[in-house]
Specification:
The complex is a heterodimer of chains A (539) and B (254). Chain A is mainly alpha-helical and 539 residues long. Helices cover 71% and strands 0% of the residues of chain A. Chain A is built from 21 helices and no strands. The longest helix of chain A has 33 residues. With 254 residues, chain B is an alpha/beta fold. In chain B, helix 6 links the parallel strand 7 and strand 8. The longest helix of chain B is centred in the C-terminal third of the chain and has 16 residues. In chain B, 44% of the residues are buried.
C-alpha cells in the first residue's frame, strides 16, 4: 500500500517538474516530446564536448574546468527552472492533505523525484563525455584510467549536487520569511540565480569559484597536483550545501506546509500602486497594460525572460573575451559599450517576443475572443505595441541614461538614434507572422528549430560586431554616420512594411495550429500564380 | 429576438447539438435546460460566436450573427459556465481591461465599474488579485464584466454557481428586471427551482435534441405534472434515480 502511494506520488512529482500549462490545448501528450527535446539537447552538448576528446592536445586543466562548470551550469538552470516544484506548494497541500497520506511519504517521494531529475540531468549531460574524457584526462596506465572514470563521475555528481543543494538552501532560507514576502522574493532570487549562473560560467577560473574547487577534487582523486589544494573546499562546500538543503526540506515540511494552509484565502491588495499610463487608444492600452502586468506578475514568464537577458550578458562577456577584442583592448574602449547596448536590445526584443508566445491561463482567453469588437487590423496593430513598450523602450531609455552621463551629448544622441533604429527593425522582423495577443495563444512545443536559432544568433552577433566597428568610425565621421543611419532607416521601413503587409489579411490567433500534414512548396508554373489556384480559377 | 434555426454541432463523429431550433424573445427570460453533456454549453458557445456551428443559422433581431459578428458582440454579454479569469489581475484591473477592449468611454465606465463593485460587495477587495478570490467573488466579476456595456442580449451559463444566498437573490431579481427592460435573456442552469421562479419559458435539451419548448405553465398543464423538476425528470432523465442511489450505497458498502 505504502509502495503504491510512493510510486504514484513520485511519478506525479517528477512529471510536474515541467509546467503543463504552457502547452497547447490540442497538444496533449507533448510533455514527453518536450522532455525528449531537453534530453536531446543535453545529449547533443555531451556529444559536442566528447568529439573534442578524439584528438585532444590542449591543456588539461582548461578542459576539466570547462566540463565541470558546464555541468554546474546545466544543474543550476534545472534548479532555477524547477524552483516551484522542489518544495510542496499550495496545490500539493490542498490536494494531498485530505488524503490519508503521511507527511513522510510525501517528503520521501518529493526528495526522490528531485534526486531523479538531478541524476537524469547529470547523466544525460555526461552520457558521452563521461565515457570519452576520463581516459584522455588520466595519466598513463589501466588503473589510472579506472581511477579517472570514478573521479570524473564523483566530481560531476558532487558539483551538480552542490549547485542544486545550494539553490535549495537559499530557497529554504527565504521560505523562513512570511509566505507572501517569500513569494515576492522568490521571483527576484530566481532571476538573480539565472543571471549569476550564466555570467559566472564565462568567468576566468579563480579560487573563489566552486567549479575550481571541484576541478581540485577531481585532480586529487586522479593523483594530479593541479588545484588539488582546493579539494577540501569542494568537500566542505558539498557537505554544507547538503546539510542546508536537508534542513530547508525538513523545515518546509514542518513549517511551510502549515503556513500554506493557515494562509488566508484573500491577501490584502496593494492599494493604488497599480496605476499604468495609457498607450494609445483603449485597445492598445488594454493589450499593453495586460502584457506589462502579465510579465511582471507571472513567475514562469519572468524566468524565461531572465534567461534571454542572461544570454545577452553571456554574449557580451564572450565578445569581450575573444582574442581579437583582448588584443584591441575593446573592453576598455567605446566599442564595448556600443556592442553591449546593441546586443542587449536584440536579446530583449527576441526574449520578449518568445515570452509573448507562451500563454498564461489559456482558458481565460475567451474574454479577448468575446470582446473582439473592432476588427482584426486594429487588433494586429495594437498587438505590436507591447514589444516596443516592454523591449525597445526600456533598453533605449537605460542606454540613454548611461550614455548621456558618460559621453558628450551629440555622441550619445547619435548612438541612440542608431540603437532606436536597430530596435525598431528587429522588433518588426520578430513581429512578422505574429498575430497573437501576448500570453493568450496556446503554445505547441517542438516547433522551434534550435540549431537554426543558434545559427541565426551567431549570424546576428557577427553582423553586430561588424556594425559596431563601423559605428565607432561613423560617430566621428558625419558622412559614414549618414550612410549607417540611412541603411538602418531603410531596414526599419522594410521590416515594418513586411510585418504590416503580412498581417493585412490575418485574423487574431488564439490557438497554435498543428502544422499541415502536407507542406506546400509554393511552386508556380508561370512564376506568378500558385499551382493550386489554376484549378480554382478555371485556368 | 434571438433565433436558432436547425443549429447543429458535430465533433468528429459525435453530434453534440442536433438540429436545435428555438427563439428567445425580448422581455422574457428563456431557460435552457438539460442534463450534463446534453449540449447546453456547446449551444451557448455557438451563440456567443466562440464556437462555429456545423450547420444551421443563429439570428439576432433577424440578422445572422456571422454577418456582422463585431456589431453582435458589442450587444452581447456572457457569463461562462466555468469562471476562467486572468487570476494575476485584480478584479478592478480585469473590469477596466474589459471596458477598454469593448471600447467603452473611460470615465463613465470607471464610474459604472465602481458602482458594480460596490453593489456586488467587491469594492473592498477590488485591488486584490483574482487568484485570491473565492468562487462566488469570481462569479461576481464575471457578472460585472457581462453587464458592463449594458448588453441587449444576456447569455447566462450557470450564473448562480458559488454565489451566496443574498447575491443569488439579488441576481434572481436582476435577471427579471433586465428582461422587463426589454433585454433578451437566455439562462442555463441546473437549479430547477430557480429556473421555475425566474423563467417564463423553458427549452429542454436531451442528447443534443430539443424535447420541450414551451412556457412552464403550459408544460405543467400538458404533462399533468406539478413542478418543473418532475417535468424535467420525465423528459430528460432516463435513469431510475432511486435505484442508482441504492446501487452507489451498495458499492461503497461492499
Amino acid at each position: 500500500m505504502k509502495q503504491a502511494q510512493f510510486r504514484v506520488l513520485y511519478r506525479q512529482f517528477l512529471f510536474r517538474m515541467v509546467d503543463l500549462e504552457l502547452l497547447s490545448t490540442s497538444a496533449h501528450g507533448d510533455v514527453s516530446k518536450l522532455l525528449g527535446q531537453i534530453a536531446a539537447l543535453l545529449l547533443f552538448v555531451s556529444m559536442l564536448f566528447s568529439l573534442a576528446a578524439l584528438n585532444f592536445k590542449g591543456p588539461r586543466p582548461f578542459v576539466e574546468y570547462l566540463l565541470i562548470s558546464t555541468n554546474m551550469l546545466a544543474v543550476g538552470l534545472l534548479a532555477v527552472l524547477s524552483w516551484e516544484s522542489t518544495f510542496p506548494d499550495r496545490r500539493d497541500v490542498l490536494v494531498l492533505a485530505p488524503l490519508p497520506l503521511r507527511a513522510r511519504s510525501i517528503f520521501i517521494a518529493k526528495v526522490a523525484a528531485v534526486a531523479s531529475a538531478l541524476g537524469l540531468t547529470i547523466g544525460a549531460l555526461n552520457a558521452l563525455t563521461g565515457i570519452a574524457w576520463p581516459p584522455v584526462l588520466a595519466p598513463d596506465g589501466f588503473i589510472a584510467v579506472l581511477r579517472s572514470y570514478a573521479a570524473y563521475w564523483i566530481a560531476m555528481l558532487g558539483s551538480g549536487t552542490f549547485v542544486f543543494c545550494s539553490v535549495l538552501t537559499v530557497q529554504g532560507l527565504a521560505a523562513l520569511l512570511p509566505r507572501r514576502q517569500f513569494l515576492r522574493l522568490s521571483a527576484f532570487l530566481q532571476m538573480a540565480a539565472f543571471c549569476f549562473f550564466l555570467s559566472t560560467y564565462f568567468m576566468n577560473p579563480s579560487p573563489w569559484l566552486p567549479s575550481v574547487w571541484f576541478v581540485g577534487l577531481f585532480n586529487s582523486m586522479t593523483g594530479s597536483p593541479v588545484s588539488a589544494a582546493f579539494a577540501p573546499r569542494a568537500l566542505i562546500g558539498l557537505a554544507a550545501s547538503i546539510l542546508g538543503a536537508a534542513t530547508a526540506f525538513l523545515l518546509s515540511y514542518f513549517r511551510t506546509i502549515r503556513k500554506i494552509v493557515e494562509e488566508p484565502d484573500i491577501l490584502p491588495g496593494s492599494g493604488g500602486r497599480r496605476w499604468l499610463p495609457r498607450f494609445g487608444d483603449s485597445l492598445a492600452t488594454a493589450i499593453v497594460q495586460f502584457s506589462i502586468r502579465t510579465l511582471l506578475r507571472s513567475r514562469q514568464h519572468r524566468v524565461m525572460f531572465a534567461f534571454y537577458v542572461g544570454i545577452g550578458f553571456t554574449f557580451v562577456i564572450l565578445f569581450l573575451k575573444t582574442p581579437r577584442a583582448q588584443q584591441d583592448r575593446i573592453a576598455e574602449s567605446d566599442a564595448a559599450l556600443l556592442f553591449s547596448t546593441v546586443v542587449m536590445m536584440c536579446v530583449w526584443v527576441v526574449g520578449a517576443r518568445v515570452v509573448f508566445s507562451m500563454p498564461l491561463a489559456l482558458h481565460a482567453n475567451w474574454i479577448f475572443r468575446l470582446t473582439e469588437v473592432r476588427g482584426a487590423p486594429k487588433y494586429l496593430a495594437a498587438i505590436r505595441r507591447p514589444l516596443f513598450v516592454l523591449a525597445v523602450a526600456p533598453v533605449w531609455t537605460a542606454t540613454a541614461a548611461l550614455l548621456f552621463s558618460m559621453w558628450p551629448w551629440w555622441r550619445a544622441a547619435a548612438h541612440l538614434a542608431l540603437l532606436g533604429l536597430w530596435g525598431i527593425a528587429l522588433a518588426y522582423i520578430c513581429l512578422r507572422d505574429f498575430q497573437k495577443i501576448p500570453f493568450t495563444c496556446s503554445y505547441r512545443p517542438g516547433k522551434s528549430y534550435i540549431h537554426m536559432a543558434v545559427l541565426a544568433a551567431l549570424g546576428l552577433l557577427l553582423v553586430i560586431s561588424i556594425a559596431v566597428r563601423f559605428e565607432l568610425q561613423a560617430l566621428d565621421d558625419p558622412a559614414k554616420f549618414a550612410v549607417m543611419f540611412a541603411i538602418l532607416l531603410v531596414a526599419s521601413f522594410c521590416a515594418r512594411w513586411a510585418a504590416v503587409t503580412a498581417s493585412e489579411e490575418a485574423a487574431v490567433q488564439f490557438e497554435d495550429l498543428e502544422p499541415p500534414a502536407i507542406q506546400g512548396l509554393g511552386l508556380t508554373r508561370d512564376g506568378v500564380m500558385p499551382l493550386g489556384l489554376e484549378t480554382e480559377k478555371g485556368v | 429576438m434571438l433565433e436558432l434555426k436547425n443549429v447543429s454541432k458535430s465533433f468528429s463523429s459525435i453530434t453534440a447539438v442536433d438540429h436545435v431550433s428555438f427563439t428567445a424573445r425580448a422581455g422574457e427570460v428563456t431557460g435552457y435546460l438539460g442534463p450534463n453533456g446534453s449540449g447546453k454549453s456547446t449551444t451557448m458557445k455557438m451563440i456567443t460566436g466562440l464556437m462555429e456551428m456545423t450547420s444551421g443559422a443563429i439570428l439576432f433581431e433577424g440578422e445572422p450573427i456571422q454577418r456582422d459578428l463585431l456589431a453582435y458582440k458589442r450587444r452581447m454579454g456572457y457569463v461562462p459556465e466555468e469562471p476562467h479569469l486572468y487570476a494575476h489581475l485584480s478584479g478592478l484591473e480585469y473590469l477596466i481591461m474589459v471596458g477598454q477592449l469593448r471600447d467603452l468611454p473611460a470615465k463613465p465606465t470607471a464610474e459604472r465599474i465602481d458602482s458594480l463593485l460596490r453593489l456586488f460587495s467587491l469594492h473592498g477587495d477590488r485591488n486584490v488579485a483574482i487568484s485570491s478570490y473565492s468562487k462566488g467573488m469570481r462569479q461576481k466579476v464575471l457578472l460585472s464584466a457581462a453587464l458592463l456595456h449594458n448588453p441587449d442580449l444576456l447569455l447566462l451559463d450557470e450564473p448562480f454557481s458559488g454565489l451566496d444566498v443574498g447575491t443569488a437573490l439579488v441576481l434572481r431579481s436582476l435577471i427579471q428586471e433586465l428582461a422587463a427592460r426589454g433585454k433578451v435573456v437566455l439562462f442555463s442552469s441546473h437549479e430547477l427551482e430557480t429556473v421555475e421562479r425566474v423563467c417564463s419559458r423553458v427549452v429542454i435539451l436531451h442528447r443534443g435534441k430539443i424535447v420541450a419548448d414551451d412556457s412552464i405553465e403550459h408544460l405543467r398543464t400538458l404533462m399533468e405534472l406539478p413542478t418543473l423538476e418532475s417535468i424535467f425528470s420525465q423528459l430528460a432523465v432516463e435513469q431510475d434515480t432511486t435505484a442508482i442511489s441504492r446501487e452507489i450505497a451498495d458499492v461503497i458498502n461492499a
